[in-house]
Amino acid sequence: MGRLNGRPIVYMSSAMLETFNFRVIFEYLPLFWSCFLATLWLSAAGLLGSLLVGTLACGLRISRFKLLAWIAGVYIESIRSTPLLVQLFFFYFGLPSLGFRMSESATGILALTLNSGAYMAEIVRAGIQSISHGQVEAAVSSGLNYLQRMRHIILPQAIGVTLPPLLGQAIVLVKDSALLSLISLSELTRAGQIMTSERFMPAEGFLTSALFYLIIYYILKGLTHWSQKRLIYMQT
Amino acid sequence: MWSFYIEQLIHSLPFFLKGLWMTIAVSGLSLLAGTAIGFIWGILRASRSRFVKPLIGAWVDVVRGTPFLVQVFIIFFLLPEFGIQLEAFPAAVIALTNLAACFICEIVAAGIQAVPSGQMEAATSTGLNALQQLRYVILPQSMRIILPPLVGQFVLLIKDSSVVSAIGVMDVTRVGWLTVQRVPQGLLVFGLVAVLYFVICYPLIRISNSMEKRMSAGVTLNKM
Amino acid sequence: MIEFRDVHKWFGELHVLKGINLKVDPAEVLVVCGPSGSGKSTLIRCINRLEPIQKGALIVDTMKVHESKTNMTRLRAEIGFVFQQFNLYPHMTALQNVTLAPMKVRKTAKKEAEDQGRYVLEKVGLGDKLHQYPAQLSGGQQQRVAIARGLCMRPKIMLFDEPTSALDPEMINEVLEVMRNLAREGMTMIVVTHEMGFAREVAHRVAFMDFGELMEIAPPREFFAHPKSERTKLFLSKILTH
């Protein structure tokens, strides 16, 4: 393959290297770095928040109180049937009209949390269901109390099952947080936009953003593989 | 006050329906093209090819690893630098088609790999060629595995199509964004936008769920 | 009909066939036995190149299987193959299972293929199960459909890879009966099996494989009465006692 395809690829990349302005990228690197950290903390906040919301929604969904279960169901279905961007604008333009004033980052995290929470509910449910009744019975009959059962038997198994989809949801959150750039939050995609508008260098700007996203993606993907392997080991 | 805004919204309803039509056009075209390309890529990805398989895998990784918004910006702003000037609409369709193809490719490859290898061996040993094996033996069996997540994926892609409003495609999200500048009632305006998406997506989610139930129930009986 | 000349096969580092020399005549029935992992399944899977060989020559019906340019699709149509796990197509009825290859490979008209399919299914005793799906059939019935699927191509050779190993004991005989009839009609057959009763009664020769080598090959009477190698004796003593 090298001889036939090598030449045009080399030409193309060298042409790109000539037009690609690395100096400007270096100039903007501090901006990208701070925006990279912003993307990380926004998605981390969304992940934590949605874990709480998702657990709550899951708890309500399977509760005996019909009304609460119904409310949780409406929440989950309506989030899943509408785009995150529309939800984001709903809060961004809607809350002020009700008299709530929130910062952009608070609005962004709120939207990410509520959106991701609806998917998290499913992950939590699968985690709970993965523990067989026999495990609980075995733990009870060996005399463990509720806290001990949770700590030593239930949670370790539930976390093992939940970890791979949780990491998958983390990948989704990192990518979803890009939409927060549209309400002018400073994060990775916004950095690309800033560079595009200030210097008109969309190539350098957005490809650098993409590169940072890919770094996060490959790390999370690696962790996912590791956790899946651990899970298989645990189940055999 | 509210009734005034509601009246204004009702007046701009044709505008919203036009936007909805644009959303359907962008997603419909991309889903059609993306499904076709996704099936071809998926079949190649499940094959034994040494060259094409890792190539598709790497591309799928890049697309799955970056936000769709960034992909849309790259296609819209970057291609002109290579002399390809694109309007917002074709740029949006290209970006969404590529995204669809990458996700569907993974679903198709998984579906094909889920068919036991003995099926392929049996088909081989009766003298069917590779295309015939795929068409008569492998794909009919994979389809039951592929279809439920495929419909679920359609929902995700229709929702993702809202992102192309950022480059100015007049879809229903963009219409909402323009309207909210005139009618400063975000809850009403984007509530309406949300309802319009819900009307399309919710039935599809239900279809996907019921297909999943039916397929998993039919595994042992195997009646098609 | 089938000729192995110093055939070698590796799976990565693992040497699974170590210089096989073997000749099978037309209308001959050869039974191959041996412990699991001895290479006996690989041996017959090489014949229609489900597994490619790395060294030596393998000639089937004048076609050179070891040469990569040989049109295997044409040769495979001449060889029926029956798997341990049946491998019936679960989304097709018994009749559809047996008519697929004749219609697509031989381009037989649908009507003709179905007549042929009905005839063959009746021959294996399943004339009343034409429109059943595999999941609705018992293991023995499924395996008979699988044999019919091979026969429907009017093959010159039939290969059987442990056809009764996945069956409940009470179903083994119905499958062996079909195979006996085939042998009587003069089909060239290679059967990998542990059914020594079948070997004694039907086989013209019995071969014993171990560690990728053909240890011993002889007519059944001689094979069972006077096994030459120690390993054959050991193997026979193990499987004949139960």
SSE blueprint and pairings:
The complex is a heterotrimer of chains A (236), B (224) and C (242).
Chain A: H1 2-19, H2 22-61, H3 66-80, H4 84-97, H5 104-129, H6 133-141, H7 146-176, H8 188-199, H9 202-235
Helix pairs in contact in A: 2-3, 2-5, 2-7, 2-8, 2-9, 3-5, 4-5, 5-7, 6-7, 7-9, 8-9
Chain B: H1 2-11, H2 13-46, H3 52-65, H4 68-78, H5 88-113, H6 117-125, H7 130-160, H8 172-182, H9 186-218
Helix pairs in contact in B: 2-3, 2-5, 2-8, 3-5, 4-5, 5-7, 6-7, 7-9, 8-9
Chain C: E1 2-11, E2 14-24, E3 29-33, H1 40-47, E4 55-60, E5 63-64, H2 72-76, E6 79-82, H3 94-104, H4 110-123, H5 139-151, E7 157-161, H6 169-184, E8 188-192, H7 196-202, E9 205-210, E10 213-218, H8 220-225, H9 230-240
Parallel strand pairs in C: 3-8, 3-9, 6-7, 7-8
Antiparallel strand pairs in C: 1-2, 1-4, 4-5, 9-10
Helix pairs in contact in C: 3-4, 3-5, 4-5, 5-6
Q: Determine Rg of chain C (CA atoms, Å).
A: 18 Å
Structural class of chain A: mainly alpha
Largest sheet of chain C: 6 strands, mixed
CATH topology descriptor of chain A: MetI-like fold
Rg of chain A over CA atoms, rounded to whole Å, is 23 Å
β-strand percent of chain A reads under 5%
